[in-house]
Design brief:
481 residues, alpha/beta, eight-stranded mixed sheet, four-stranded antiparallel sheet, globular, binds pyridoxal-5'-phosphate
Length: 481
Amino acid sequence: VPSTGAGEDSWTSSGLDFLIGVDLRGRGLGAALQQAVREAIRCGRLRSGDPLPSSRALAGDLGVARGTVVEVYEQLAAEGWLLAQHGRGTRVADLPTPPPARAEPPVPPPPRHDLRPGHHDPSSFPRQAWAAVIRRVLAEAPDEAFGYPDPRGRAELREALAGYLGRARGVRATAASLQVCSGAGHGLGIAFRALAARGARVLAVEDPSSPRVREIAAGAGLQVVGLRCDDSGARAAALPALGADAVVVTPAHQYPLGITMSARRRAELLAWARGTGGIILEDDYDGELRYDRKPVGALQALDPGRVVYAGTTSKSLAAALRVGWLVVPPQLAEPVAETIGIINAWPSALEQLALARFIESGLFDRHIRRIRGIYRKRRDLLVATLAAHAPALRVAGIAAGGHALVRLPPGGPGEHELVAKAALAGLALAALSGYRTDGAPAGQRGHQAALVIGYGTPAGRSYRAAVAALGDFLRSAYPPP
Ligand SMILES: Cc1ncc(COP(=O)(O)O)c(C=O)c1O
């Protein structure tokens, strides 16, 4: 008897025991029967090789036209679920058993206060201004903007970026040398792959540096070697001994030490690149955020033929946008274009058009001025709290960006002990050793103990409570004499 109720099972008597749930809600019987058979196979009630009733018998049992069942069987056979064999009737096809679903890894509860670096204040996003720009883009963009975009990025955005980067960061770029990508990490990954395609094997990275960038480089097939940093930045003189084909640096604000690379080190890096044919990748991940002194211009301007420049909106606007850019030297233009062609992914063209307008209208500059004020205040609160609660700790790297290096004095708790105790107090902190390329803990190989405190998050007003909790925690860890 056909089931006309929602989700009832029909027990057919077509010579074979055949239990299927036919849910007739909102569709025809054929579609419902198809879905029921698929579901029965998927959940294992019908297994590979199981016979199905003849179309005549099943049609009779369900009280439907035989043609309906024949069509269902044919459709499911075409999709590969069933096998119709002449003289042997219809059976469930030989389907591979699906692998057991992977258990979701347990998600640890979020810390009460997260002061790890690498994040911006998500509550500072200019929602209204962005919404207005998006509305205009949707109203005014030509139809072609809704098709497949130019893999290099929208021309409007590349034009706007060339002007902005020249004006704000001293970068020498044209629309033609710009490649839009989904953040600096994506951009660096493209550049790493392009370099590997050209024969590069060894990539030097700053020690310490972002583990994520190192993973991206290793994923591109490069051998990653550490280049030690001191108070002037990366020690360029060590590059020849490392046998590096390319080096990735953060000259404006070393990640995570917060140093600005000295003019001498810049010159040494460029001399190495010119002398060996090496390529420098400049990761300008937070170049817009500078507080106490004039911005330091991009290294790229000193030799655009040898430096790949990478930038992002992740710190200045929102990491959620996934919009970044590369300025590519002519010698890498072709491999970069080929790589982006293979990767075949870039940010939404509509978001690109919105950013182009945001920059051209002056809204981006206004927004940057506003968030500089927000981050400066956050930084000042952190520095004042540490001075009041833990005067034994030394803060460094605070002229720019969204994180500070807090050096730990000898004789106190070690980095890991401190981070573990902080976790028990509901505070997530990061130890400097987590950024070391050799993985050696503080105290070994001349590594100093320090925390890297991010002051971009927590969002909005919860930041004040987080810094107060940090102050209390550090006062208890380093009690005043
Ligand atoms: C040093 C450094 N480089 C690159 C990135 C990647 O930024 P994006 O979000 O643009 O991929 C980050 C992100 O935190 C970073 O800290």
